[in-house]
Fold these 3 entries.
Entry 1:
Amino acid sequence: MLKDRYNRIHDYLRLSITDNCNFRCSYCMPDEKMSFLKQKLLMSPEEIFDISKIFVQLGVNKIRLTGGEPLVRKDFGEIISKLSLLPIKIGITTNGLLIDNYLEELKKADISSINISLDTLNDQKFKTITQRNHFAKVWENIQRCMQENIHVKLNMVVIKGVNDDEIIDFVNLTKDLPIHIRLIEFMPFDQNNWNKEKVLSNKIALQKISEQFSLFKLKDDKNDTDKKFGIFGHSGTISFISTLSDSFCSTCNRMRITADGKMKNCLFGKDELDLISAFRKGENIIPIIKKSIFLKHQKLGGQFDDYKNIQPHNLENRSMIKIGG
Ligand code: SAM
Ligand code: SF4
């Protein structure tokens, strides 16, 4: 069992399988031309499986594949089919563009729920945010998932002045669709043009929604990062991820491996330990994993407390695309 100095048990691994992406979301990656890791530096499907197996031995019961965009990997089908042999719940976070290529594999791996990122329902705005013209295809894939009985959780990063005017439109989707909408506060990462004025706190979003809809609280699981609500008369549900305004660090059970094989114990932490080099040399990586968990800070990577006082240039971290969200 992986327990840190604050008695938090870590049983959830978020695994970035690539830092490459077919979108260019401004809040996730730097403006400059990005260079991505060469294929041979990425963990192979066998390495992903073997490393995951070690985490499972240490008590991990859930692994989420993320990136970059996990579905741009040509061997995604092989990765998922190998992981489905482990006694874990598998999660996937994707921008949705390539889902139709993998529906068969997802079904075979018993994936019953998928997190898809969508920040706008307007195709022009979609193009501005992602720098790609793929709204229609993503929306079609969202519908395909629902037809295949895969529960869709839509991740919407709310940015003031960009898409906060669409919150109600997103909630309206839940009227007839059995979809779950997750409103995520805009977080600061390396060179993502973050400033506190662009953050719409979940409290304000909740107020806005409550003025138009009749909400009731749903039960959250003990390590959930989101606070869930139902809406009377609606098929779908909504939730709020208030990483900045009301952090959930006290119940954190998450750890991360970046696409270049570094272990990160916190989304906002600057400490990284090189797991993949040791693994490739045939060394025992368990002491490295335990050390990483031991080093975990109590809150927000030890880098800030009140988000209103964050000076983005003082934060030491990667961009989100290089961490794995
Ligand atoms: N490409 C996949 C996708 O977009 O879903 C997976 C990787 S992406 C980094 C994972 C999640 O992080 C997405 O839901 C994305 O919206 C979210 N994300 C990226 N940058 C963020 C930021 N600055 N603040 C809040 N969420 C962010
Ligand atoms: Fe790509 Fe996802 Fe980042 Fe957008 S949020 S650039 S889709 S990794």
Entry 2:
Amino acid sequence: MTGGAGFIGSNFVHYLVDNTDDVVTVLDKFTYAGNEASLAGLPEDRVTVVRGDICDAEVVDRLIADTDVVVHYAAESHNDNSLHDPRPFLDTNIVGTYTLLEAVRRHGKRYHHISTDEVYGDLELDDPERFTERTPYNPSSPYSSTKAGSDLLVRAWVRSFGVQATISNCSNNYGPRQHVEKFIPRQITNILVGDRPKLYGEGLNVRDWIHADDHSSAVLRIVEAGRIGETYLIGADGEKNNKEVLELILTTMGQPADAYDHVVDRPGHDLRYAIDSAKLRDELGWLPAFQDFERGLAATVDWYRENEAWWQPQKAATEAKYREQGQ
Ligand code: NAD
Ligand code: TDX
């Protein structure tokens, strides 16, 4: 798999170790978003970590020759970064995916592509429809457009070259080991260091939250039983606006619900994401295990309280970057 030192990738590695007998090789470049500590302590006979770039055709080819299934998580993943410097998004998300597809094509390997609901653009707050596998692509940011491009490459490699691939598009994940640049960890760790949380604009934007372990169980199910060439949307009916989530973080942490600052909004900020995951549930019998967002969030708060050594080294530089941007 790729990107196993990042947030969702590392949760997937832990999930595989805890729930299967699979042996995993992680290919990760250890960008600012990769963290060795996220994979520390895992059994050496189950997990091998290779430091390398998915754009490096030689290393990719060598590893894929020895792999049964490739699950591709590695990406430049942060919208705000993509608005300030899109180039790494093109390299990793587009050229990196192309490099993997060429290798799985050469070696005839099964490939699963991890993507996002952001490829579909956004919905109005009162739209009764949610995203489905048939929603037209309409990405808004450099990040989401490169993820959309990578999905389309996968579809083309399936159709033109018969690559054995599936795609999943998941909604916003929360849980342990998420970088402090992202919304939920940023606010939790701001409170822990004595800063005020920062809400973009009015905070009415809606995200459809899912626990990272539910994302992992869905991906495993698709790898085991998904139909080749198909796309599956992954979501857990977790729609909440940013203001609600922030107020919940504050009250969970014993702070007044209004103890935050409004900061400048994200340009092109998507208003609402919402996933209809009926296909995955009906066809593959998948169900999310985390039904209670408040409890999952409280456990995530506890994780950041207990793992300051994991996030503290990145905190000051992340906030300095946000301050420069007025956020
Ligand atoms: P992340 O930024 O936390 O981790 C990305 C990982 O990829 C890091 O370990 C990084 O070192 C690695 N990486 C980056 N460029 C690389 C390269 N060129 N070669 C090898 N490794 C490289 O990201 P995340 O939030 O865990 O997201 C993982 C995947 O899930 C991405 O494909 C993302 O688009 C998708 N996704 C994320 C969410 C979410 O809520 N975070 C939701 C849906 C889909
Ligand atoms: O400080 C903040 N204040 C704030 O109000 C930050 C960092 C974010 N926000 C808002 C912007 C979004 O509406 O919170 C929401 C969530 O922001 P992010 O954590 O940056 O996530 P988002 O842009 O929704 O994208 C995430 O979900 C889809 C992941 O980062 C992507 O990789 C994934 O594809």
Entry 3:
Amino acid sequence: MAIEDLIASVPTGLWIGGEERQATSTFDVLDPSDDQVLAAVADATAADAVAALDAACAVQAEWAATAPRKRGEILRSVFEKITERADDIAALMTLEMGKVVAESKGEVAYGAEFFRWFSEEAVRIAGRYTPAPAGTGRILVTKQAVGPCYAITPWNFPLAMGTRKMGPAFAAGCTMIVKPAQETPLTMLLLAKLMDEAGLPKGVLSVLPTSNPGAVSTALIDDGRLRKLTFTGSTGVGKALVKQSADKLLRTSMELGGNAPFIVFDDADVDAAVDGAILAKMRNGGEACTAANRFHVANSVREEFTEKLVKRMSEFTLGKGIDPASTLGPLVNSKQVATVTELVSDAVSKGATVAVGGVAPGGPGNFYPATVLADVPADARILKEEIFGPVAPITGFDTEDEGVAAANNTEYGLAAYVYTQSLDRALRVADRIESGMVGINRGVISDAAAPFGGIKESGFGREGGSEGIEEYLDTKYIALTN
Ligand code: NAD
């Protein structure tokens, strides 16, 4: 589809109760490759949030009572619908978020998979039945849908961060209101339309784009009818939302920031480690919570690893994500370019060397080149803070204990990557790494069939796998006599 036709086909109103509604005002969505306006989107208010919750509550009981097989079949149709429209969704995502089309296509496949996976989980919501140990009765345990949920998603994966929540919520029988990031609401609005076409009952999903996330969120969180908040975004906002949710004791899931270590041991296959490093660092242009944020490399192989990584990083072609010749698109906005620039200059001022890249080319657009920093000192901010850009800082270590200690020296605990050819070492280190997920000799770990999530200040709760649906189910104990 031509770009103008594609944008014209996206609903730009509020999506409430399965219909598009106009709002009293709009806000602009920009293309990060040139900062031009792509579309003006309806700007939800607190009153719109209440209307969306009214719509969710009106159908919650009926949706929870819908046969699991039927819910599963609707989710499967959504999977097929997304797959049919993969090229359009990918192009739209690239336009509003910046990443290259190949990355967007990868996200469409990954994001759709949550509907296929959870279409299969919808029919496997089981309970249990046991005699009471004292012989005094019987214990029946059932699972029930939590109820209306509110999902807040970030801009870096405009589709998948939503589908990872919607798939399990709808499979469990919950309704959901999604508030996409203000930078990237178009993908979620198009998805809402496709889900309607695929047969999702009206009211089960509402989508509220807004330039005022605080007001919309407060209206929902403070309304006694909401049962759950699921958030993906920065640790700071996540902490504030957990505090805010305490008043109504909402169930919460928090997928927050990361600072993933990528550890290369002296017995690693260095070429494989460089391949994995490119994936772990450059997936999504470096704007991923699972992105390798710092490379801890055994000193005996550090020079070889650095040289080979520099060669591969210098092969990226920076350009508009929609241009097929580009292999690295712009960052999402100028603020992100400023953050990355600041982290690189801090590291350099403390003694790091720029081996490739390191200078933003300037406007138009929010570009930053693939960059490698060598000899990064331990006190550089870039080793402690989330970069969210295509910069690979390398630092060395000698012993296994030192490598593990350096990797764990962070308040975050989302993902970690370990390269070694020793199975013993791989398992030993995986046990000792403080993170929710560990990749062994691989640079991409996300899989709809696996539990995704963090520990420490990277949050709690799991998305995907058989664990994912539990976030949307309450456990009920029914006590029976003999
Ligand atoms: P962000 O926290 O600024 O925004 C995330 C979402 O929260 C957006 O929708 C935003 O509108 C909303 N928001 C902001 N202030 C709010 C408030 N006061 N009340 C309610 N909602 C509010 O994060 P971001 O910059 O959009 O995304 C990047 C962050 O997300 C990074 O830290 C990244 O690591 C994290 N992330 C985590 C995961 C994961 O699964 N752990 C996945 C992707 C991104």
